[in-house]
Amino acid sequence: MTLELLSLKQQLLKGGAGSVLVKATFAFLSFTISVVLARYLGAEGFGVYAFIIALIMLISIPAVIGVPELIVRETAKYQAKGNWELIAGLWLWGSKVVISFSVAVLLTASLVIFSFADYVDEVKSQAVLISVLIIPLAAVVSIKSASIRGLRHTVLGQLPDSIIRPFMFLILILVAPFFIKTLGVIDVFYAYIFSVVIALIASLFFLKKVKPVQIAQVTTPDYDIEAWKKSVLPLALISGLHVINGYVDILILGLFRGDEEVGVYRAVVQMSLLVSFGLQAINQVLHPHFSRLYTLGDHQKLQTIVTISARVILLISLPPVVLFVFYGADILGMIFGDPFYVGGMALAILAFGQLVNALMGSVGALLNMTGHERYTVRGVALAAVVNIVLNFALIPFYGMLGAAIATAVSLAMWNLLLRYYVRQKLNIEPSALFKSTRLKLN
Length: 442
What we know:
Number of helices: 16
Order of helices and strands: HHHHHHHHHHHHHHHH
Mean pLDDT: 86
Number of strands: 0
Structural class: mainly alpha
Distance between the termini: 6 Å
Strand content: under 5%
C-alpha cells in the first residue's frame, strides 16, 4: 500500500469519524426534539406537526432542483483541476437559480394554501401558511453548505443544518413553555423558522472562512451553464424522488388515518433512521472524494475507499437493527410515551428496510458523483412509484404497518437496483458483503 493511499485512508477515517459524530449528534438532537414535541403536543398534535413537515418537504422539491448535489460534485472536480473561475461562476449561478425557484415555490404554495384555507382546520391552515417561509431559507442554507462540502470541509459543511438548526430549535421549544401558557403547533413552526435563520447566518460565516483565496480573487467568473443544466435535471429528479420516498408514507397515512397514528408513525420513522445514519454520515465525506478520484481516473483507490466505507457502515448499522427488532415497542413506549408503544412492529419492518439500504453501501453517491446520475434516477423513480402504489394499497387496511411495509420494500428495491448499476457502469463493488471480482484490493 502506497503512502499516498495510506494518507487518503487516514483522511477518510478522520473525516468519517467527524461526520459520524455530527450525524450522531444530529440523530440525538432530532430524537430529543421528537420526544419533547411528543410530550408537549401529545400524539395527535405531534401527528399534525409531522403531517405539515411532510407536506412542506414535498412542496419544496422544486426549490433546490438538485443544485446542492451539483455544487458538491462540480466544486470538488474544479478544485482538483484548479478551475477557480468555474467554481466562482458555479456558486453564483447556483445561488441565483435556487433563490429564484424557492421564492416562486413560496408564492405559489402560499396562494394555493390561502385559497383552500376555508376547507382545512384553522390551526393546520395557519401552521402551513407560516411554515412555507422555511422553503427559501432552507434552500439557501443547503447551497452554502454544499459549497463548503465541495471544498472537502465535510464536517463544517454539515454543522449549519445538522447541528446548529436542530440545537436552536430544541432550545426554543424547551424554553417556550416558560413564556407562553401552552405550546401549540403554530408556536413550534415559529421556532423552526427562527432556527433556520440562525443556521443560514452560520453557513454564510463558515463559507467565508473556508473559501480559498483563489476564489476570492476571481474578478471574472466563468460559466458552463449548458453542462450544469444538463446535469442538474437528473440530480433534481434524484433529490425530489428521495424526498417523495421519505415523506409520502406520512402524507398518505395522514389522508386515511388520524393525527395520532401519524404521530406514532413519525416517531417510528425517526427511530428507524438510526440504522442508516452511518451511511448518511460516511456519504457526506465520500462525495467529493468519489468525484475527485473518478475525475483523476484512479479506479483502484476508488474501489479501496468504497470497500473500507462499506464495512464501517455495516458495523454501525447492525446494533440498532437488533435492538429495534427485539425491543422496538418497549423503546418507543419508554422514550415517547405509552401511546407510541403500538409502533413496535412497524419499527422492526422499517429497520430491516434500512439495513438493506446500509448493506448496499454508497450506491447512490457513487453514481451521482461520477456523472451516472441518470441511473440513480431510474432506480429511485421505480422505488417511488412502488412506494406510492403500495402505500395507497396497504394503508387503508393496515395503517402504519402498511406504510412501513411499503417503505421498506421500495427502499430495498432501489438499493439492489443501484448496486447493479454501480457494478455494470463503474466496475465497482459497493457492498460490504461481496468482494470485487475484477480488482485486487490492497
